[in-house]
Amino acid sequence: MDLRPLRTSRPRSRQVRYAQLAVPFALIALVTVVDVLAPPDVHLGPFLVAAPAVTASFAGPRMTGFMGLVAVVAQAVVAAARTTLTDLNHTFQIGALVMISVFVTFFAHLREVHEKELVQLRSVAETAQEVVLRPLRDRIGPLGVASVYLAAAAEAQIGGDLYAAARRGRSSRLIIGDVRGKGLDAVGDAALVLGTFRAAAHREAGLPGLVDYLDGAVSPDLDDGVDRDESFITAAVLDIPDDEPVVHLVSCGHPPPLVLRRGGRVDALDVAQPAPPLGLAGLLECSVTAQTFAFAEGDVLLLYTDGVLEARDRSGAFYPLAERAAAWSGLAPRVLLDRLCEDLLAHVTGSTLGDDAAMVAIERLG
Question: Which of 173, 208, 265, 347 would be a feasible disulfide site paired with 288, CB 3.0-4.6 Å?
């Protein structure tokens, strides 16, 4: 399993930090020189307060305090050069500069503490999600498999995207789903679905029975003090026989999988009778049915969550998954997902993924 949170590299971050520090230092130097050379009635000392204030926007309390100290020393140099340190005007300017530097240093401290708390919270959440999402094997029966999870850079609000695979006799079963909501509660619901799938995928003979079992296990948990209309799990459950060039699919309100066929053709597996999302089946009178689609040797089946489709660029345009995938037919699952991730992140350049995105690529090998 490949977990890829949106984060910049540490060396690049340090280079940016050093470049940012040059700005307040240059400001102090410029104001000091101009203030010393200015006419007696012109006082530029108040502009020095901008140096620690700017530093507090990107640096920690130590650097902010140091920048405030440099600004105070610069103001003292100006006072000594123009009059004396005991001059009333410069004394008030130095006092005000010291007071404001202390304030901005304190606020930089509060921001640093908040950022550390967010990092710790996200680390705990990502660790919990890695435990829930066990790695998929590269080879499952006659299938080549690759998976990836893109974490949205939105504080610690990870989502409840899920996927898993299991073998039953001469076939492979897979599930991909998305829990409504974010955070650790969503991860807990995802863990419930995955645990139930792993326990039942080996026993239930047909996909409809497996989906009914999943819904029956999920519904009581979602109904425990929570409005069922607001809590559900979309999912696609698949069965791929080893000896037949087909895939059986039950869609529980999930985006349709795509099949990338040779020659650049992409087929969306839209089922005629979708089942309701897991947790909502009890509200509707319907029967769960599986639909069969062609899945021949060399075809690649792409499963994904709605975080992929809902990724927007700066203009607000959604990511055109089917259109982009058509250019990548014939690629191995891992290469396909690498290309897809690079293109998806390029699509949201200057923005972030609004939701976590999970993807699984499955190729029927010879």
Answer: 208
